[in-house]
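User: My advisor, Dr. K., asked me to get a structural model of this assembly before our group meeting. I'm new to this, so sorry if the format is off. These are the inputs:
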Amino acid sequence: MNRRHLILVGIGGLALIAYPWVFRSNYAVDIGFLVLFAAYLGQTWNIAGGFAGQTSFGHVVFFGVGAYVSTILHATYGVNPWIAWPCSALGGAIVGWLIGTLCYRAGLKGSYFALITLAVAEVGRIVANSLPITRGGLGMLIRADLRAENFQFKDPIWFYYIALVLCVLAMVIAWGLTRTRFGARLAAIRDNEDAAEALGVNAFREKVKCLTLSGGLCGAGGTVYAQKYLYIDPSIAFSIDKSVEMLLVTLIGGPGTVLGPLIGSGVLHFIGELTRDLGAMLPSVGNPQPLSIIIYGAALIAIVAWLPDGLMGLFRRTVGGDRA
Amino acid sequence: MLTPEILVAGLVNGLMAGGIYVLVAVGLTLIYGVLHIINFAHGSLLMLAMYAVFFLWRKPLGLDPYIALPLVIAGAFAFGYLVYRALIGHFSHGKDENILLITLGLSIIIDNATLFFFTGDTQTIEVTYAGRMISLGPALVPLGKLVSFAGALLLCLLLGLFMTRTDMGKAIRAVAKERQGARLVGIDVEGVMAISYGIGIACLGAAACLLMPTFYVSPSSGHAFVLIAFTIVVLGGMGSFKGAFFGGLIIGIVESACGLWLGEQLGQIGIPLVFILILLLRPSGLFGAAR
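Assistant: The format is fine. Below is the predicted structure of the whole assembly, which you can bring to the meeting.
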């Protein structure tokens, strides 16, 4: 990182802090929250999928477990959500550790790992749908009591800043992965696992650690979602669309880069809003929602085909001139 | 109370459902066996073929789904061939994960395009004879399901013959075993792969024709089959038609048994659990060659 990068990052950071004061409408602040929150979840995917090459199709399982852990503790047992929050992270971490230990013990890699995470997320959805403790398909409501000590806020600006703090935290962790030996070992595993093992890297242990970290961070996101919308149900908490969103924002922004998920999330939401507005302008379009998702699918194919290192890669090659 | 009658009826129903799953999975196992790719768009392409059957049956054309069979198979083959040539083979740069992502993108596009053009409504076709009940022991089975079961068996046999008795089948097996060697003896590897993908999707066309008389289609019906089809392929052994056939029947029975035993909600857990356990404990499946 040279001085020019520091200045750019500083300007970007200030813009993100100032955003809700410039665009004061609740709608604009909510969009900002969604961008930052998707960037945060994307970053948790990136830590496993981008930095360690562990492509997951069911990352939502960590999110869902986190959302249910804190909501059950809070809504059913009356635990304060601020205290339930770390428990969610712990829940996500335990699930990550479990999936990692089982999969990597069995030597599952690449597409097999992706499919098994998909199946685990499906198991999560079915379990949440059938158990009394999760109230099944009815979903769980959190009683509205808009006070800060309840992790509920009158002004949506607070959730914006919570998402911003989480996002920055995850970016700092991701940045750490570019500088530490742990990150270097993960990169070695991603690029060539056999070679990494030959050099004495314990691939199994490092991959499990990485998935535990990623799962824990993702689980913490579940609580934020539940506290913001005060409701979760199995098809929200374990939806495959959320898994896809996490991998999509990262791949579009640039997998294995610190800024990738944030850039990808911004671009994706911008495209989404744009197509929704354009679709609404055409009189014959009944429901413009599928149109924006079609564009997401096309973007995924285009990125894989032409920009395997995402927008960050494009940026580096054209504007950045940073060959380091 | 679980009486023997209920158990036998559950078993027969499970077998019949399994026959449908075989139809869906047999194309997937061919695609996996040859291309070594996981076709995530399989469910979406099935759904698309089911819509094709629906629109052929509807008013202006009024084609019976069983008569439309050759037409849909040919159309599905052409579509699959083109999708491979234009998208998958071209853009994947030969990496497995990329193919998975491209087929994921393809399924997102197909699902939402059908949602956009055909709305989310469920569509069914009514052919009177398909609902006629045939009694098999204590169980009553609609004729349509019996036909699709027989179709599944026939399709597996035909594919098995095709793979062992024809030159194309030999070329496909050669590419599946040793891509580089196949290229050296003058096989057009890319062409064979595109044709294999086309045949895999053609199987979906057949599945759609046999399914529609007793099933329904909506933009999300592909989803119901994706994980089931993957489970069957993994259970039977990747690339094995015999495995796909018995795997499909087993999965049908597992689903039916879990439904009876654990109830309708929790019973759905059987299929993903089988999938996870097979991959963890015996990734080569029942009939797959150890790798």
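One thing worth pointing out at the meeting: The longest strand of chain B covers residues 133-136.

User: Perfect, thanks a lot.
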